[in-house]
Every structure is written in C-alpha cells, then in structure tokens.
Amino acid sequence: MKTTEDKAINTHLSLTLLTALIMGFSNITFAQEQESAKTNIVANLGLFKKKSFAPIRGESFLIQITLNNPEKLKKAEIEIRSSDDDLIQILVLKGLKASQKHYEIFWNGQDSTGEIVPNEAYFPVLKLTSLSGQTDIIDTRINSGGEEVFDFEKNIGSGSIEYTLPIASRILIRAGIKNGPMLRTVIDWEPRTAGFHAERWNGQDLDKTIAIEQNPKSSYLIIGYQLPSHSIITYANTKENYRTYRERKKLPIQKPKYGKREIERAGKTIRPEFYNPVLQQKSPRINVSILDIKTREEKTELSGFDEIITQVKLHPLDEIYLDQERYEISFFVDNDFIAEEEQGFVPFTWRWSPGRQGIKPGKHVLTVNVSGYNGQVGVKNIAFTLQDKK
C-alpha cells in the first residue's frame, strides 16, 4: 500500500502557482448574514442539512431562508449560479408574509431550460427587493471557501485511490513518475463532500499505454481547497460533464481578473485556484501527432536515425485559457526527460530523431506534458516502435 506522504512527483506534476489571478464577481455583494445598507433587510441562508443531491434520480435540494424583517420586503429570489458564476436558474420565494420569518424553497437540479445540470458545485445567491424597489444580493462565496486542504488521510490501493475529507472541497488527484512526467489526472479539481471517498480507476494512463500503478517510481499528488459554505454538489449525472455542458450551451468564457484577494483566512492559506474560473484550473486537452517529415502522415513505426516531427496542439477553448499565462511543453520517452520548450505556443512542432537521442530499437512511449504556470498539466502518451535500421 502506497501513501501520498511522498513529495510531489516533480516540477511538471506539482502545482507551480506563480501567478495569482482573481475571477471577478462584479455586481455582487457577499455576506453570510448581512444588513443591507439599501434595504435595511437582515437575511441569511440556513445551514444545509446535506451538501449534495442527485437530480438525475429525481431528488431535490432544500434551501432555508430567514428574513428578520419581511415586512419591508417586496420580493425574494434565489439565483442558482455555477462555479463559473453562470446564472443557472431563478427560484422565486412565493407567499411572503410580514409575520413570517422562516421560509423553504426547493431546487430540482434543473437549469432555466429544464435540463438537469451536470455534476458540479452550485451556489444559491439570495436576491432581495424592498417595497421601495431597492435590490440587494447576499452571497457567501466571498467570506468562505478556498482554504487549502491537504492534511487528510489518503491511501493508494490497486485500482482505487481512497481519502477522507474533513470538509466539502474541490479535489485534484494526479498520477505520474517521481522525477519524471505527469501521466494522468485522475480527478481534475472536482467537488467532493466531506467524508470517505474511493476513486476507482484502472491504474493506467488515459491512452492505455502505461501501467502507472505497476511502476515502482509511481507517485501521486492529492490536494484540494474548501468549497464555500453554501455549496450544493450535484452527482450521478453520467450523460454530460460540466465542461461540455458549458461549451454546448455556449456560455461565456470567464476571464480571470487581477485584483485584491485574501491570502489566508482564519490562519489557513487560500489557494490561488479558488479565484480562477473552474475551467481554467482543469487540465488542458492536448493533441499530439508523430509525423513523417516528408509526407506529414502520422506514423508510429520509426526507423533508426530518421528525423520525425512531433506536433502539439491544444483544444481551441483551452488555448484561450493558457494564452492568458505562460506555459511550457515537455517531452519524455519511457518516462525519461528528452526536451522542453519553456515559452510554449501552439501549434508547436518539434523536429527530432529518436536514434540520435540514444533511444534503442524496440517499443517505447512518448509522453508530452503541457504545463501552465497556474498548475494545469495536459498529458498525452503515444506508443511507438523504433526499428533497428537506417
């Protein structure tokens, strides 16, 4: 049984957080319990009895609201917002009474078009409109969430990565080779509830070319940060993930903004990823091809000292995120470092000869890491054969 008490895999696997970027939530006033300067209405969201639910199974989520002076209130709404601050749904609090302070409202896990949302963390934002028509918003994201989570029980077993979280968090799990490449992102900054979790996987990279678990030098990185106090985590929707949902809906790409941010809260470090758009944190999708230098046709059967071209491309939307920061492209063969471009750009073309790199005839694996300076790492593994001939 291996544990993650090992140091991070290497500089290509560990998070190199050199730039702290903040995603702005303009037009929102954040507070856990707030007396509005405009409406003079005191209100708060009740503590959730649970943190997650499965709308795909017909479940709903209960949100409790307390209004200390409802007689001043004309309308109350709950805006359900995504982790990238997309407006997903608006729930209208009906039956407001001047004598009633406590209310309940349910969210069925659907967006404004009636579609069930993908698995992610969502946030209720309380919008209040007074009798005079003034509006205020209460949101808990500014004064909760982002605190680093790393000191928790973790175990790496055959086909399973197990851990126990002290609090609902967004988690990253990577697997690779110590002092070598990152080979797979097993969990890519996904929300998880407090408690025990067992992440099942096949012990291989996504291209099924490397048995990571069987390598004696394999190493794992398991880190995270706390979600805001009123996070709602949806699960069990296997039809579509959050990234493809946003792309299909053509929701706007969130651009990080420079600005003031908290470095710590209550003595705990706040991870910079908390202030970035969620999709910027995720591993970039990369495409790698080994091409014949003359025909530009893809090939995996290589000969002696012949020169070849390795071409690296990024998914267009991921390129937008990485272009906002620096990134590098690294090349490994059989987990050994071969070359690197520190000033990354795409499409990137690397002209090289396996034979001249000292690679012996036989079967090999080329690994490419595209590493953003905010810690993202995209990976692609390609198996190739080197023939013993010129």
Description:
It is a single chain. The chain is mainly beta and 390 residues long. It is built from 3 helices and 27 strands. Strands 3, 5, 6, 8, 9 and 17 form a 6-stranded mixed sheet that branches. A 5-stranded mixed sheet has the order 21-27-26-23-24, with no helix packed on it. Strand 11 (154-157) and strand 12 (160-165) form a beta hairpin. It is elongated, with a radius of gyration of 24 Å. Residues 1-37 have low confidence and may be disordered.
Question: SSE layout and pairings?
Answer:
Blueprint: E1 33-35, E2 42-45, E3 52-53, E4 61-67, E5 73-81, E6 87-92, E7 102-107, E8 121-130, E9 135-138, E10 148-149, E11 154-157, E12 160-165, E13 169-177, E14 182-192, E15 195-200, E16 218-226, E17 232-234, H1 242-249, E18 264-265, E19 268-269, H2 278-281, E20 286-292, E21 301-303, E22 308-314, H3 316-322, E23 327-333, E24 336-341, E25 348-352, E26 362-372, E27 377-387
Parallel strand pairs: 3-17, 21-27
Antiparallel strand pairs: 1-2, 2-4, 4-7, 5-6, 5-8, 8-9, 8-17, 10-16, 11-12, 12-15, 13-14, 13-16, 18-19, 20-22, 22-25, 23-24, 23-26, 26-27
